[in-house]
Amino acid sequence: MFLTSPEPTGSRSAIVPLPAPASTLTPRIGLKARVLPILVMGVAVPAIFCTVALPAYAYSSAQPVDGRATAALEAYKTQDAQTVDVVSPAAIAVARDDYTATSAADMRRSELAAAARAYSGPSVSDLLKNPPYPNYDPATIVSIAEQYLGVPYVFGGNSPAGFDCSGLTQFVFANVGISLPHSSSAQGRMQAIDPAAALPGDLVVLDGGHHVGIYIGGGQMIHAPMPGTVVRIGKPWGDYWFVRPGI
Question: Global pTM?
Fold first, then answer.
């Protein structure tokens, strides 16, 4: 836009340029501002990429290697190697909580049961013919009975291969030459004694004559309780009485 300013009379008019409006100005961007983004994209970004990718180029399978080192490595890998053949993963079963522990008492019971099954010694009739303890002594009865602690209960058994209640007492007393019937009720009908006079080695008859054991003193007896158990020490129960065989 140009304006004409008046001059002195007799002179020509002079044209003076004025600044254009702000809306018509075109901004001028410096060279440095335009070049900087190009440098960042062209130099900095590739540099970062190369830095990250550098470890990947550190090894190449195409690089030559020392043949001796390779052979030594293969020999090391195969030395003392073990091979396991697996038919199928589905054939492998893993079970948990299948462990059992055997106590000393369990082992002892197993040993006694095995010894009882292997028994081939004298029978009751053999012992009566030739008793190992010909002189009757109640204390001897207890010591003989203690030898058979742990022998399994066997219904009708009267040997160390297995005892029932009256079979145990019959076998023990046969060792001292005293014959007893193989029946708890029949043994209970023998000569009863005053409980105050009971001694270790006497018979304890209980459960109405359906059970019998050998008294060992202190309110306890050795007996063969029932199927599934073994000869053991226990206390008499219910109403019971004492019998002393051989008198």
Answer: 0.56
